[in-house]
Amino acid sequence: MFRGSIVAIVTPFKDGAVxxxxxxxxxxxxxxxxxxxxxxxxxxxxxxxxxxxxxxxVIDIAIEAxxxxxxxxxxxxxxxxxxxxxxxxxAKAVGADATLQVTPYYNKPTQEGLFQxxxxxxxxxxxxxxxxxxxxxTGVNMLPETVARLAELPEVxxxxxxxxxxxQMTDIVRLAxxxxxxxxxxxxxxxxxxxxxxxxxVSVIANIVPKENAELISLWEEGHTEGAxxxxxxxxxxxxxxxxxxxxxPVKTSLALMGKIGEEMRLPLCPMAPANLEKLxxxxxxxxxx
Length: 290
What we know:
The protein has 290 residues and is α/β, with parallel strands linked by helices. The protein has a single domain, classed as Aldolase class I (TIM Barrel, Alpha-Beta Barrel). Helix content is 46%, strand content 13%. It is built from twelve helices and ten strands. It has helices spanning 20-32, 52-66, 81-93, 111-124, 135-138, 144-150, 166-176, 190-195, 210-221, 225-241, 249-257, 274-286; strands spanning 4-8, 13-14, 17-18, 37-39, 73-75, 98-102, 129-133, 156-161, 181-184, 200-203. Strands 4-1-10-9-8-7-6-5 form an eight-stranded parallel sheet. α7 (166-176) links the parallel β8 and β9.
């Protein structure tokens, strides 16, 4: 379940509401092109701007549309443990295969607080958890020692590591061993993470190049390291382009330029600056995407 090219899928909007038709089409595009699992309501899915009803609706649609063809790892984390438990209970009730649990943002909990947060969710809702460490957004970094401690819980199965530190990710593998699966949380480090023992990536670029990203992971798994290296280097400019501005602004703009969704996101996210938009168009054109 926790390997390969896993897409952190965008949430398309139309006239201020979730665009269910386009969302279903995006899911089909992913499955047809080899994506290993779908993650709705992650950072790329603008979960922070979804109200509770919308959040649950997006998860419901994803589970129904996927129809067990690949795993659905529902984003149900939050900065309130009680809210995370509520969302996780709903995800389990409607058939999610696992949940993505971000470290609580803004609160800046201690390492003990992080342990207790994830433990409380595991105790309340026995469902596989993918921990999500992204200190650049949350203001707190979950240390490898805490990850190793959490990995002792049967519900904690994997971690999406987006600290950007290969050293920290290597320590997770060293300390937690076979108790947890390491997933890259940033497309820019997919190959280095695979090299230290990671099993895949929770990807932004998979939204627009699902087949190519899945092939990169497959090449590595099959032992074709030079082929994987070449595939990674080819995709690298696209990885960088997805962060010309705050994620998911560039990837939603890319999908809109490709004609797959409308160009709509929620404030405080806003359309790309003209100069960055032109740079993005050049990269997309070079990949034959527009």
